[in-house]
Specification:
single chain; about 475 residues; alpha/beta; eight-stranded mixed sheet; three-stranded antiparallel sheet; 16 helices; globular
């Protein structure tokens, strides 16, 4: 589409203002592209003000416009945006670099080992399209939904979180616009600006960005292969006075660790004794691998006292644009969560909620989850084998049975920044480990995604390119020579 838009842009001078461009059918035949590609290219030119499209008539070159006025002087904003008062606890700038590392699309031809979502070939596009179509025809689908969310969707989330025992009820669930939105609401509800908040170390950079932009102080608590370490968690509560702990007990991002059975109760007990909340980010429960055993239930399912505020989402298992998620909480905190969500965004659009109900209630949904489960196992095994064969110096302490990535430790002395830059030159995009730490990291790391690529062939080729990049970086290879 980008290439076609470029070609059409170059040809516009052939037409006088108001002149008609060739028909879409003629463009399809001439450039040997699909009608969708032509439609998107013309839409791009229309958005740029270069063409005008008229349904049933075609596309026309736009009239010439007067030159754009000269840019104003915005330098005054540097002073205004940095003029924090002496008692202002909320930072006025936001560092989104850790989030952008997994959201930004790499240049064409670059293998996407930095992606945070399923490759389009793994997304249930047909099921999503059918769900949206059916949802749009539901009676009242375009009306105003309840602020808490559609009751039927809240019931579905409650069963998914609390299990068949019904330990979570629909009345304890709010529908939110994606996991990031749910985490933002939870942190704003539970911690005032300037307060400490305990976080796993390493942890999800998007959560660290939320905390810092809200004026909170992330305090790291180390994790190992069995999840967060309870003794260090208790020490951190005592030392910091924090009243919130954010964790990912299942397939933690980035380590892939699962909180062990004996630690689950310890974490809840420690938080309860500290008078603190646990925000449980259950972000990839639906991306379990085919060879995984039975999954532990969410912490929220074993919490009658309202310690846990649970966040889960359909986004990771469906599509990055399918931003439907849930917050589950028990007690007075639920009303605070609802109030903050209403002030921020009113409600999640009803057609999207109706589409979510159509999707999860269709036979296509469990089929999709089974297919993704098998694919993720295959891709994980392909990447693991390729890394062990070509890059044995990269330590892989844990191979997860869920999620979409691997967490690797770099050889001592290897620069994350230098390797990331060399890899991009070699044609593979990486996610460096530094943004996952709220304090100084113990070593250099990489997170490699195996879900955002086209398939096993791209994984193998990406690891080959990574091998070449590591050989260029001083300290990155046993045979590397500084300055080489």
């Amino acid at each position: 589409m980008d290439e076609l838009a470029k070609l059409l842009r170059q040809e516009l001078n052939r037409y006088s203002p108001g002149g008609k461009l060739p028909s879409s059918r003629a463009l399809v035949e001439r450039f040997r592209v699909s009608p969708v590609t032509v439609s998107r290219a013309l839409a791009r030119l229309a958005a740029e003000g270069l063409v005008i499209t008229r349904p049933g008539a075609g596309a026309f070159r736009a009239e010439r416009h007067a030159p754009a006025p000269s840019a104003g002087d915005t330098s005054w904003q540097e002073v205004a945006l940095s003029a924090d008062g002496a008692t202002d606890l909320v930072p006025r700038s936001v560092d989104a670099s850790g989030v952008l590392a997994s959201l930004a699309a790499p240049p064409p031809g670059v293998i996407e080992f930095n992606g945070g979502y399923l490759h389009p070939s793994l997304q249930p596009e047909r099921a999503l399209a059918a769900a949206l179509s059916r949802a749009g025809r539901r009676p009242g689908a375009w009306g105003r939904p309840p602020m808490e969310g559609l009751w039927e969707l809240r019931e579905w989330f409650a069963r998914a979180i609390g299990g068949p025992g019904g330990t979570v009820t629909a009345a304890e669930v709010l529908v939110t616009a994606g996991g990031q939105s749910g985490l933002t609401t939870a942190l704003r509800a539970l911690a005032p600006p300037g307060a400490p908040v305990l976080v796993e170390s390493p942890t999800y950079p998007g959560m660290l960005a939320i905390a810092r932009s809200s004026g909170l102080r992330p305090v790291p608590v180390p994790v190992d292969a069995d999840g967060v370490r309870p003794a260090l968690l208790a020490d951190a509560f005592r030392a910091s006075g924090a009243r919130v702990f954010v964790c990912q007990p299942l397939f933690q991002n980035p380590t892939g660790a699962v909180l062990s059975a004996d630690r689950r109760g310890e974490v809840l007990r420690i938080a309860r004794e500290a008078g603190a909340f646990v925000i449980e980010d259950d972000f990839v429960r639906r991306l379990v691998h085919e060879d995984a055993g039975p999954l532990p239930p969410p912490l929220a399912a074993d919490d009658p006292d309202g310690v846990v505020v649970h966040v889960c989402s359909l986004t990771k298992a469906a599509s990055p644009s399918f931003r439907v998620s849930a917050l589950a909480a028990r007690g007075p905190v639920l009303q605070r969560l609802l109030a903050i969500q209403v002030v921020d965004s009113f409600f999640v659009p009803r057609p999207l909620q109706e589409a979510a109900l159509e999707l999860v209630g269709s036979p296509a949904w469990p089929r999709h989850l089974r297919a993704v489960s098998a694919q993720l196992r295959t891709r994980r095994d392909t990447m693991t084998s390729a890394l062990r064969l070509r890059l044995p110096e990269l330590a892989l302490p844990h191979v997860p049975s869920g999620g979409y990535h691997l967490w690797l430790r770099l050889p001592d002395g290897t620069s994350e920044a230098a390797l990331t830059a060399a890899a991009l030159r070699a044609g593979v995009a990486l996610t460096p480990g530094r943004p996952y730490f709220s304090a100084e990291p113990p070593a250099g790391h990489l997170r490699l995604s195996f879900a955002a690529v086209a398939g096993a062939g791209e994984i193998t080729e990406g690891v080959r390119r990574l091998r070449a990049a590591l050989d260029e970086v001083p300290g990155g290879s046993p045979d590397a020579v500084p300055g080489r």
